Amino acid sequence: MKTLVKLALFMLLTGSCVAVLAITISGVQFAETSDYRALFTDASSLREGDDVRIAGVRVGRVESVALVAGRAEVRFSVQRRHSLPRGVTAAIRWRNLIGERYLALATGKGGPGTLAAGATIHDTRPALDATELFNGFRPLLEAVDPAQVNRLSLQIVQVLQGEGGTVESLLGHIASLTTTLADRDAVIGRVIGNLNTVLGGVAARDEEYARLIDDLHALVKGLAGDRRAIGESLVTLDRLTGVTAGFLTRARPDLKADLAHAESFLAGLNADGERIDAALDAVPLRLNQLTRAVSYGSWFNFYLCSLRVGAKIENAGARCSGG
């Protein structure tokens, strides 16, 4: 019985830990929230459950992303204790290098007061489209003959290594390549036109890029100031790795035996599955009884309903006759 109680407590504790972990990963909010909407021309890679942040601090989550009248409508919730100004702006920003995004809220130009719950934000900016940036070079790359580029590269290597060929021949290949590029002036013009959109977006975010560079400078400066500590940490990490490897080497035989015992233990649990299920089914009843027992305070109430006393004397006659 004690084993079943311990098993039930272990499973209850494990289930609680798993529930807390699941709630943390899913980003479920238990605080009171207010719902808002924001309209974007492009909401690519923004998904339900993504963060909503103010000054880098998570204050809500994205509830849905849908297409409404040719624009992306993003519905999101914000914790009620964080009021949004009437001139709030919304922007989709990169969360990491693998393409995840988040919704950033900032104070824009607007009158005093706060934004009412359920209102729509029209002052929005989509995220920078990296695909559009790289696709801008496609016409130029398609116009250049790969074989011609390969011949030029081979000629440069041969001249630098002294394996035949002359500088005159090398210059001839370079002239041929530049002539080809000159003949593709229309293609180059399209490349520049394709990049105008991207460069316009970069220019509109000059303050953000400036802050990014400043933050990167501060990070590098901090790392440079702590270079001695970082070096010592690497040495210590090397020692720790060696100690850990030795520990695992010594513990491997015992660990193998423990795993074998664990297999036997789990097999026993599997064999007693019906009894364990019955014990778990009885847990709610036992908890209800325990709740009633302590319902009047932090003590237990015991009631003596009956008392039975019995005595049994074995071979009493033999003892008496023996005097």
TrEMBL record:
| InterPro entries per UniProt | Mce (IPR005693), Mce/MlaD (IPR003399), Mce_C (IPR024516), MlaD_Phospholipid_Transporter (IPR052336)
One family name in Pfam for this protein:
Mce4_CUP1
Q: Name one GO biological process term.
A: biological process involved in interaction with host
PROSITE patterns per the record?
Answer: PROKAR_LIPOPROTEIN
Name a single GO cellular component. extracellular region
Task: Cite the Mammalian cell entry C-terminal domain residue spans from the record.
Answer: 114-271
The domain of life is Bacteria
Which residues fall in a coiled-coil region? none
Mce/MlaD domain segment(s): 33-108
Which residue spans traverse the membrane? none
Which PANTHER family does the entry link to? Answer: INTERMEMBRANE PHOSPHOLIPID TRANSPORT SYSTEM BINDING PROTEIN MLAD-RELATED, MCE-FAMILY PROTEIN MCE1B
- Would you tell me the protein name for this molecule? Phospholipid/cholesterol/gamma-HCH transport system substrate-binding protein
